[in-house]
């Protein structure tokens, strides 16, 4: 029987970052060893202008991508509107004038975040189901409404401003009540409670 030829291979770790998220030292060395690309002759047209390269010390996670151009944004907006026309027509056919009730506006957006926070606090749940409390998610939703309030200051009409303020007030109060209730020690029940007063 012929002997099997033993093959050897080398595994090279090509990841750019360490488990802690830092740029690995050997990838920095490779970047320094790379030679710059030869300049293109002036007669060769380039497909698109290339952005200037970032300094070597800048890690890739710190680079901010360029925003889309106005023309790209308009094209995307038009494509989005075209793709939703069929759904809008179907909703209008099935619901008639009530189809406008499903259109998203600022008040419906705030109301959806408000209801989400109530669900996360366990204050609203499906009939027959146990309440599910997720304090971290509730806090994030409430903080999202807070960010919304800060970023829209001066841009809301009175109705929108009141809705946002009232929603935040109620949710923050509910959050405090739920966290206080969860922090309280459990009350003894049944025979553990001791004798009842007469």
Write a compact overview of the structure shown.
With 198 residues, the protein is an all-alpha fold. The protein contains 5 helices and no strands.
Question: Would you write up a description of this structure?
Answer:
By secondary structure, the chain is mainly α. Among the domains are: 70-101, no CATH class; 104-183, no CATH class. Helix content is 47%, strand content 0%. It has helices at residues 25-33, 70-95, 106-120, 135-151, 158-183. α3 (106-120) runs parallel beside α5 (158-183) and α4 (135-151) runs antiparallel to α5 (158-183). Residues 41-48 have low confidence and may be disordered.
Helix-strand blueprint:
Blueprint: H1 25-33, H2 70-95, H3 106-120, H4 135-151, H5 158-183
Helix pairs in contact: 3-4, 3-5, 4-5
Termini gap: 97 Å
Radius of gyration: 30 Å
Low-confidence stretches: 41-48
Overall mean pLDDT stands at 78
Query: How many helices does DSSP assign?
Result: 5
* Count of individual beta strands: 0
Secondary-structure-based class equals mainly alpha
SSE succession: HHHHH
Largest sheet: none
Q: Which descriptor suits the 3D outline?
A: extended
Helix percent band: 40-55%
Strand content: under 5%
Which terms summarize this structure?
single chain; about 200 residues; mainly alpha; 5 helices
